[in-house]
Amino acid sequence: MTTQEFAQRLTEHLSRAVDGALEPPAQATPPSHSQRVGCADLPEGGPSWGVRPRAELTVTAGEKTGKYLDDVDTWLIREGLAEHDKRLRVDSPVDVREITAKHDDGTEVLVEMALDSGRFTVALTGPCTWPPDRPGGPPSSGQLPPLPAPSGPTQTRSTDTADPCRSPKLYVYNLTSRPFSGRGPHLMATVRYSDEREMEYAEILLPRDWEPRYEPGTSARNLDQVQLLVCVRVEATRDSRQDVICEYANERAILGGGRPFTFNLFESVYQVAVREARSGKLVSEFTVPGRQGGEDNCPYQMSYNRKLARGIDETAFQRRLQPLVEARR
Q1: Which of 39, 138, 205, 265 has its CA 20 to 30 A from that of 162?
Q2: Measured distance CA(229)–CA(163) in Å, rounded
Q3: pTM of the shown model
């Protein structure tokens, strides 16, 4: 195959990785192309005049760079790239996360991120190809088979995982949900999550008629009725210097025993992203402060954590969602 033909294939690989794994705030540079002459060092060997094309881009995402590196890693696995491997390289001045993989067409993949750098690179190197300035041309020119169709997002059908909220290009709530169209009410499901594991959070509830109905004779909701997934990311901002005392009738609800249970209350803010349940498409995005007071902040069940984020302002939360529930589309 020709060098130009495979250089185009490398661009296609990079484009599919960007489209399949990344979304704002991640930003990818346009691919840069280069080539290396000589294939004798390859395991399978090759002519000294053969050319190996190369393409590379850089992804920048600030504090979320590690998360998007994981998304690219998931995409590589899902697309079936063989010889997939990842490791932490500590033999350099800066520790580097490294992922390698190989495609059936001969493309070699190298993803590298220097820890705390805020960016990572995706570099692809093609197999030995026929250079454009060499007469004759390869016997298989133009015969590079097309790539298979992308696998598409994985369905979770669960509010117990934040995957459809954190990585909507890779995961969706329910592929068979009704589209966000037609007359309301447009029913919802809520996913609450946080980046802080040492903090407790009060429940976030929707009005009952905004949620899907239960399947007849069961305690399971009809997920196909969900049109909108409400993703709520809780962020504790600062110590309020207040305590909240929570009473629990059942001491088994408290790991560690004892009641009442006293928490150190933290101010909070809730980042809300509303997505179409079947596609992950962003419908609306807004912020709601934490404003509940007293026992309204108490979570349903406790662990050992003594920190508690202030509960969401339910009135403001529902006021922002109501136009979406009632929308005529």
Answers
A1: 265
A2: 12
A3: 0.87
